[in-house]
Specification:
- Helix content is 45%, strand content 17%.
- It is built from nine helices and eight strands.
- The strands form two sheets. It has a four-stranded antiparallel sheet with strand order 1-8-3-6, with helices on one face.
- Keywords: DNA-binding, Transcription, Transcription regulation.
- It comes from Dorea hominis.
- This is AraC family transcriptional regulator.
């Protein structure tokens, strides 16, 4: 099968998204983040390293990672890979919620894993060929996948702390969305807390306890992700990249970049 291009499923004709992982060329990292949708990474070629709630998972070809709603995860793909990513709205599973609009799927391997991967492969293949009625064929595979999820991978017994963490991350999602929209501005912890009606101490604790990171690191990661793209895809001076992505100066940007990539931005750019 030829996997040669990135595909994003249109939102207006199917009930989910499917695309090729943006880190397919390797040397790619996606820092800690979370979202409401259920996300599946199906690896067919290469290798990927996952961290989900501080636990490391190494994927080999034929394996997948299932990321639950509001699970904190990061991704590292050091080498080239072919990975199909599915993003499924949480509301797809509303008839199967266990409590507090909550549903949880296991990360453990199951005897149905091979069947699960085959469904994803067939779904992608059907979309790529675009034969008459392909959208119906894709959706038929999609519902087969949903059936496997709720019947073979859903965990019925979940502890109260997991549900509590899920609710807190729902609240944090609004805050982090605001941060992602305003990362170029001077976003202090105090001003952000005031915007959302919290004390700075309480907001700081929310990040530490439920996002497993501190506020400053989270903001630096957002800014670094955008600055990295400018560094790779433009000829802008380092200082300009820093200022346009919210860093107070080039020294602050260099410090964060070097901590992440073990190189100065200028050295990294020369190697590219």
């Amino acid at each position: 099968m030829n996997y040669s291009h990135e595909i994003i499923m249109p939102n207006d004709d199917i009930p989910f998204k499917m695309f090729v992982f943006e880190g397919r060329r390797g040397n790619y990292s996606r820092e800690k983040h979370w979202h409401r949708s259920v996300e599946i990474f199906a690896l067919f070629e290469g290798e990927i390293e996952f961290y989900v709630n501080e636990i490391k998972y190494s994927l080999n070809p034929g394996e997948f990672m299932l990321v639950n709603s509001n699970e904190i995860h990061s991704i590292h793909s050091p080498k080239e890979n072919f990975t199909v990513v599915l993003q499924i709205p949480l509301t797809t599973f509303e008839r199967y919620y266990t409590d507090e609009k909550f549903i949880y799927f296991t990360h453990s391997r199951r005897i149905h894993d091979e069947e699960f991967m085959q469904v994803i492969r067939d779904m992608y293949d059907a979309y790529e060929k675009k034969e008459i009625g392909y959208d119906l064929k894709v959706q038929s595979y999609f519902y087969e996948l949903i059936y496997l999820l709720v019947s073979k991978y859903r965990e019925v017994s979940v502890d109260s702390e997991m549900i509590r963490s899920n609710k807190k991350l729902n609240k944090l999602s609004a805050i982090t969305a605001y941060m992602k929209e305003n990362y170029t501005k001077d976003l202090s912890l105090e001003s952000l807390a005031q915007t959302f009606g919290y004390s700075s101490t309480y907001l700081s604790r929310m990040f530490q306890k439920y996002a497993k990171t501190n506020y400053k690191n989270y903001l630096d990661d957002i800014r670094l992700e955008h600055a990295y793209k400018d560094l790779v895809n433009s000829d802008m001076p380092i200082g300009m990249i820093a200022s346009q992505n919210g860093f107070p100066n080039s020294k602050a940007f260099t410090k964060v970049f070097q901590k992440k990539y073990n190189k100065l931005p200028s050295e990294f750019r020369k190697e590219l």
